[in-house]
Amino acid sequence: MALTSETVATVPFLDQKPGTSGLRKAVKVFEKSNYTENFVQAMLNAIDFSKEVNLVVGGDGRYFGKQATQLIIQMCAANKVRKLYVAQNGIMSTPAVSCLIRKLKVTGGIILTASHNPGGPHEDFGIKYNVSNGGPAPSSVTDRIYDISKSLKQYRICKNLNVDISTTGNSKWEVDGWDFDVEVVDSVEDYLELMRSIFDFNALRGYLSSHQVLINALNGVMGPYVKRILCDELGMAASNAVNCTPLEDFGGRHPDPNLTYAADLVEELKKGQHDFGAAFDGDGDRNMVLGRNAFFVNPSDSLAVIAANMQCIPYFQRTRRASGPARTTSARRTASGLSSRGSPSSPRTTRASTRS
Fold first, then answer.
1. Partners of 259 in the beta sheet?
2. Whole-model pTM?
3. Is 356 a catalytic residue?
4. Which is catalytic among the residues 21, 93, 98, 115?
């Protein structure tokens, strides 16, 4: 189908300075006339279009996400993006977006999330850009986006292009004589494939069959991942997965996985009926881990535990290297042992630094 884009005059907004976590504002700010359009155009203008541009688009399912997804599709079409890979229903965790960027070797990705901030018509929304390595845009990119936003006078959009993102599949258009494709992709499948390549799923099935685990997704993006990976793939009882339906307002919850906002999980673990518990934030890149009787495992210690037991993880068995957890004492010693002896050193109980 042949479509024509249009150029719309606008005036710059001077408060669109993104950080590595993107631009976060109240929903009512993003709903201002041309506000979201301006920021999306500034992001697109910051991309190098001297070569083919392909992007991934996903988000945590919060309020305004669906509208923003359609807007991004229309603007990418008008700005000569070659192809978009859009998450089904617009829902894809931040780690899954990163996974897909790297797997497909695309230009980058646009993630619609305000992370652990509350969602809903009177709460927060956010847009961030991840680069080709799957990670957040560095300051050199975010500074360029901000500089562009301060002098933006127009944006391009193809208003007649509408995509059904509720069903997976590929659609093609011709916009201003250029080919434009949108592939709606399964939100979980590629991330599940990555997890299979990293972890020992048979060992995890064995653990879940003999231990009681309780997972609380806080009505954020991780619900479908918990159901698909832990329940369907690894056999965890569905009754042990709670608040797993993504909601635009997170069910009125604050999607921040800590002892305060995930207090219901803490109270359940205190009863002593579960061996392990976890909760996730809105976009799925942070978690809280609890042991029996609600023993709190701080994030640095959980990293150190992984590092100290790398010999159990197939990915590290294959690569025999660890380049990430360098800041914790336990992880640093373990990584050193892995490099020099081909297997990790003995697990240690040294407390990890909270900086990692």
1. none
2. 0.89
3. no
4. 115
